[in-house]
Write a structure and sequence with these properties.
heterodimer; A: alpha/beta; Beta Polymerase, domain 2; five-stranded mixed beta sheet; two-stranded parallel ribbon; 7 strands; elongated; B: mainly alpha; Cytochrome-c3 Hydrogenase, chain B; three-stranded antiparallel beta sheet; 17 helices; 8 strands; globular
Amino acid sequence: MEVSFALSVINDAMRDLITSVDTANGDVRITTAKDNLIQVAKFLKDDPRLRFDMLSDLFAVDYPRKAERIEIIYNFYSTANNFRIFVKCHSNIDEADYPSLTPLYESANWFEREVYDMFGLKFKNHPNLKRILNPEDWEGYPLLKDYPLRKRPPVEKLNFNTPGLAEIK
Amino acid sequence: MLMFEYKDYLIELDNFAINIGPQHPSTHGVLRVLVKLDGETVVEAEPVIGYLHTSMEKYAEYRTYHQAETITDRMDYVSAASNNLGYILAVEKLCGVKPPKRAEYIRVILTELTRISSHLVWLGTHAVDLGALTEFLYCFRERELILDIIETMTGARMTPSFFRVGGIAMDIHKNFTGKTRDFIKIFPDKISEYEALLTKNKIWLARTKNVGKISVEDAVSFGVTGPSLRASGLRYDVRKINPYSSYEDFDFDIPTGDAGDVFDRYAVRIEEMRQSLRIVNQAVENIPEGEYLSYDEYPQYVIPPKHRALTTMEGMIFLFKYGMEGIKPPKGEAYQSIEGPRGELGYYIVSDGSGFPYRMRVRPPSFCNISALCKMAKGYLLADLIAIIGSLDILLGEIDR
């Protein structure tokens, strides 16, 4: 699929929802507000011309100097059209109602857990929002820019009581 | 005197749960799976990851662009060259650098050899999980030959870090093509040998046919890629649909399955080894002449070749600058995905114009593949769960990063 065609389809349907379009380095990136994210993702997934059926990746970038410091980047891929698009969304860390894409894509489940684990952003209505890579009692969010590289809790504060079978639901 | 209460030994059968791992030989690393059972049937299997988490994405932010390359091959240490290639291609995209054809061909040879060696590790361990020990010994015998070839070329067996922005570190070693040709000669028979042990083996078929099925729609929704997705029937291979590093020059097929079960994933990978060997053969026979680093075109991003650094003044200056402060790609973002042995491996790099990556995001294929475990294992026996984990070809270093 041609970039210009995809952008024209997206622009026709969602002119008000998209704040900027960037095509540098051969990738297509569109920016939208977090309130419109679900609507944009639904359109990208369901529109018969686009059919972005795979959420290939979801991650965040921290810009501490910006007003809304977390930039969440969604990597949608269409297996039918062999086309990839990045959707960007900005948020604060303590945003109360940041939408979750888990109803639309199964892969969003783990990716959103990872973003929560690394950046502390809580996704609203996520079915199982807990830390995924770090231990559950870890303090802080390691990929934030103000988290130092070599921060490590003192040994007496580490929890050696391994979680047992009790955590099974 | 009553030592124990009898009720301590009562097991609740309705909600029977067992814990597999993290230290368990059939989890291929430190994967922990919480399994809820009904009799012997899996009701729910929840993978718990993170036991090997080393925060490599954070580390990369404190390294220069070429130092960060050495981090990438420690993520997926079984197919390190693939990880290097994905990272270097992303940085090249960011800088707008095009490597010379000769370097691209050598990159292809190394990554395809790595793919074969990675599939050999998978085949050996997967077969051991299901009780076929001979297969393991056969596979590791040939893997040693491949590691030997890679060592000849790069000096390291497992973690080469041989690629550079705009080319490769050194020109071809004089023994490299000869050794590779020898390997190409013997390997097809070896694949038949592996298949002779398994493909029509009744026990193998009983353990793998119609086990761990997943449909294309589910697999796509979970983000499953690589051989696991192709076994379900979708012909999705980044080498074919978005060719990178001169893959369009080579003639090869994409094997697919239709049932999406453990056997199809096995068959797809076996056939992929043959196709990789075809690519290696074509690449070795057609390595173009010329430079192996595009230093002349992009001197601000590309390391000078060694002989230039030792004989010319500006070569030495650039080599010094390159070592002291590294390269500084322009401000921007770039994404590049390649077909790793486990699936689509993507690198998203954000640059702020300094010598360090502002953010390096790895899109790990195993991470998505293992997240679909519950979907695949539901309704099958506990023993099948081991077959399914093996068939996904996960690598925990890459999942946890």
